[in-house]
């Protein structure tokens, strides 16, 4: 089992990293490997809607997205965590996820998704919903926890005092491991669900 982890915070050693550590400790104990990618202070350009990926199966822009697409193809689960900026996920992370999900040709079905949002005070549920939308448009089941996955703190490390948030991160990580293992068994025994040809309409024709 392997998990691709995306940390959408530009701050190294920030609260999002601290929350993710709670999850990676679980993965370490369970023998689950992971690739941890931090967006850091790199600017990530948004999708240009150029359509290059339709014909080439990769994004035209030369940054980390295409390498992450290979990791996404190989993983069993995707864990995305973001600080909340103005009630939303970090803009660079959203730009990266738009391009990653849109341009990558891999089959994402039954890869387990989980998302966390970290804030000083508010906006976590909106950011959480926003991040979950990438999973639910891709036939990816979601590992959930005991709350809508959040953590609270402003200055670096303050989230360490959020006992419930950290505990929930451990719960989600354990549920993610269980789901990934169960899906691997189910895939072996039953195969993936039958796929219909996509009906792709936009209401005017
Ligand atoms: C540009 C910006 C916008 C922010 N907007 C919000 C917000 O809408 N709600 C909130 O509670 N905290 C907000 N914060 C605070 C961060 O979410 C908070 O400090 C969080 O712990 C940062 O996570 P990190 O340490 O992983 O970077 C904002 C911070 C920045 C820099």
Gist?
By secondary structure, the chain is an alpha/beta fold. It is built from 6 helices and 6 strands; from the N terminus they run E-H-E-H-H-E-E-H-E-H-E-H. Strands 1, 2, 3, 4, 5 and 6 form a 6-stranded mixed beta sheet that branches.
List keywords for this structure.
single chain; 205 residues; alpha/beta; Rossmann fold; six-stranded mixed β-sheet; globular; binds flavin mononucleotide
Q: What do the pLDDT scores average to?
A: 97
Query: Structural class from helices and strands?
Result: alpha/beta
Strand content: 15-25%
- What is the CATH superfamily label? Flavodoxin domain
Low-confidence stretches: none
The CATH architecture assignment turns out to be: 3-Layer(aba) Sandwich
Looking at CATH, which topology would you report? Rossmann fold
Q: Oligomeric state of the chains?
A: single chain
How many structural domains are formed by the residues? 1
Distance between the termini: 43 Å
Top-tier CATH class: Alpha Beta
Q: What is the molecular shape? A: globular
Figure out the total of helices: 6
Number of strands: 6
Radius of gyration: 17 Å
Small-molecule binders = flavin mononucleotide
Helix content: 40-55%
């Amino acid at each position: 089992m392997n998990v691709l982890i995306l940390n959408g915070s530009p701050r190294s050693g920030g609260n999002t990293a601290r929350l993710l550590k709670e999850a990676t400790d679980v993965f370490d104990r369970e023998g689950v490997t992971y690739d941890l990618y931090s967006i850091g202070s790199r600017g990530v350009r948004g999708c240009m809607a150029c359509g290059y990926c339709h014909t080439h199966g990769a994004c035209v822009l030369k940054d980390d997205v295409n390498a992450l697409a290979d990791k996404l193809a190989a993983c069993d689960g995707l864990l995305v965590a973001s600080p909340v900026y103005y009630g939303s996920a970090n803009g660079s992370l959203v730009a990266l996820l738009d391009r990653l999900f849109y341009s990558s040709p891999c089959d994402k079905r039954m890869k387990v998704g989980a998302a966390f949002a970290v804030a000083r005070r508010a906006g976590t549920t909106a950011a959480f919903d926003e991040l979950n939308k990438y999973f639910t448009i891709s036939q990816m089941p979601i590992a959930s926890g005991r709350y809508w996955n959040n953590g609270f703190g402003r200055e670096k490390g303050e989230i360490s005092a959020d006992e419930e948030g950290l505990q929930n991160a451990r719960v989600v990580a354990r549920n993610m491991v269980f789901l990934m293992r169960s899906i691997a068994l189910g895939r072996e025994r039953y195969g993936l669900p039958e796929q219909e040809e996509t009906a792709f309409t936009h209401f005017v024709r």
